[in-house]
Amino acid sequence: MRCHLRNLLTLILLTVFILSPSAYATAKKLIPMGESIGIQLQLPFVYVAHDVLLPNGQWLKKGDVITKVNGESVSSVEKLKQQMSANDLTISVKQKSQQRDISLTNEQANNILPFLKDETDGIGTLTFIDPESKQYGALGHQIIDGVLNAPPDFTNGSIFLASIEQIKKSSPGNPGYKISVIEKNDIRLGNIKSNDSYGIFGNWESNLKQSLRKPIDIMHVEDIELGKAELYTAIEGSEVEAFDIDIIKIEDNFLQFIVTDKNLLEKTGGILQGMSGSPIIQKGQFVGAVTHMFVEQPTKGAAITVTEMLKKKP
C-alpha cells in the first residue's frame, strides 16, 4: 500500500484490484464520473488461488505458479486444460524461487482446476474521462493482487460497468464494502493500459454522450480550501449520487476529509472498500479522488488531488 499521509497503519486501500498518465498532464477539463466498475486484468501465467491438499500428501500453496504440464509451458487456464488430455501428468510448480514437479492422474488434475486462476479482478470507482483524449483514470491507487501480494504483470485488461447489489456498512475497526456485479450487457467500457501508483488508466471505448455530467475545470492545489465539498459515487445500482463531505486537511497533493452527508452515513457508515476513485468536487471544480479510509474512523477518508493523479507514474 502506498500513501503519503500520516497514520499509515490506520489506512486501508479501498479496492477489494502502454499509456502513461503523463498523457493527461495537459488536460484542462475532465468529466467527473463516480460509477462503480468491474476490473479485469488478464495475467500471462496460471497461479493457485487457495491452498490445496493433493492425494499424495503434498500441498499446492496459495500463490504458487503452474509453469508447465508434461514439459510444455502454460500461460492460461484454457491452455492448461488443453494439455491435460494425458492419463498421467507432471505439473511443474514454481513457489517463490524454487521449482518442483508434481505427478498427478488426469482426474486429480481436474479436481484442482477450480483453484487455479489466470486473471485478477475486483471492483473500484471510475474517476474521470478526458473528453479530448478519450482516456480515463480510475481508483487513485495501484491494483495489488490479494493472492500474489503484488501488482501483477498483465497482458491486457478491461473495465465494465458494475451495479451495486448490497452494502456491508463500515463501523470502527470493520471496513465495509460494496457487493457489486457486472451489468448484464457485459459491454467493455475501456481497456487498461497501465496500473500505476496513482490508479489505472486506459482508452475509453463507450459513447461519451451517455454521461449526464459535463466536463469541469481542474482545481489547482493552491486553490483547494478546507471545508465543504462533494463526493460522487454509486451506492445503489449504477446511479451516481453527490454526497457532502468536509475537507479537513491539505498536505502537499493529498487530502483528508470527513463524511458529513446524513444519507451516506446512514446507508454506508462512511467510506467503503470499492469507493476508491470516487471524484471529489469543490465549487464546481475537480479536486481529486478518494483513495483510502481510516479503519478506526470510517467517516474519515483520504484522497489524492487530480493534478497529482494526472502526473507521470513515479
Written account of the structure:
This protein is mainly β and 314 residues long. It has two domains: 226 residues, Beta Barrel (Thrombin, subunit H), CATH 2.40.10; 73 residues, Roll (Pdz3 Domain). The strands form three sheets. The chain has a 15-stranded mixed beta sheet that branches. Strands 18-19-20-24-23-22 form a six-stranded antiparallel beta barrel. Strand 4 and strand 5 form a beta hairpin. The longest helix is centred in the middle third of the chain and has 7 residues. It is elongated, with a radius of gyration of 21 Å.
Q: What secondary-structure arrangement, pairings included, does this model have?
A:
Layout: E1 11-13, E2 29-32, E3 36-48, E4 52-53, E5 59-60, E6 65-69, E7 72-73, H1 77-82, E8 88-95, E9 98-105, H2 106-112, E10 116-130, E11 135-138, E12 156-168, E13 176-182, E14 188-191, E15 194-196, E16 199-203, E17 216-217, E18 227-236, E19 239-251, E20 254-259, H3 262-268, E21 272-273, E22 279-282, E23 285-294, E24 297-305, H4 306-309
Parallel strand pairs: 13-21
Antiparallel strand pairs: 1-23, 2-10, 2-17, 3-6, 3-10, 3-12, 4-5, 6-7, 6-8, 8-9, 10-11, 11-16, 12-13, 12-14, 15-16, 18-19, 18-22, 19-20, 20-24, 22-23, 23-24
Organism: Ureibacillus xyleni
Protein name: Stage IV sporulation protein B
Domain Peptidase S55: 93-314
Main pleated-sheet profile: 15 strands, mixed
Write down the secondary-structure element order.
Answer: EEEEEEEHEEHEEEEEEEEEEEHEEEEH
N-C termini distance: 14 Å
CATH class of the largest domain: Mainly Beta
CATH architecture of the largest domain: Beta Barrel
Residue ranges: pLDDT <50 for 5 or more in a row? 1-13, 15-24
Q: Strand tally, please? A: 24
Percent of sequence in beta strands: over 45%
Give the CA-based shape. elongated
Q: Fill in the CATH topology of the largest domain.
A: Thrombin, subunit H
Q: What is the chains' assembly state?
A: single chain
Assign a percent range to the helix content: under 10%
> Class by helix and strand content?
mainly beta
Overall mean pLDDT score? Answer: 86
| Count of the domains | 2
What gyration radius follows from the Cα positions, in whole Å? 21 Å
Number of helices: 4
Pfam families: Peptidase_S55
Protein name: Stage IV sporulation protein B
Keywords: Signal
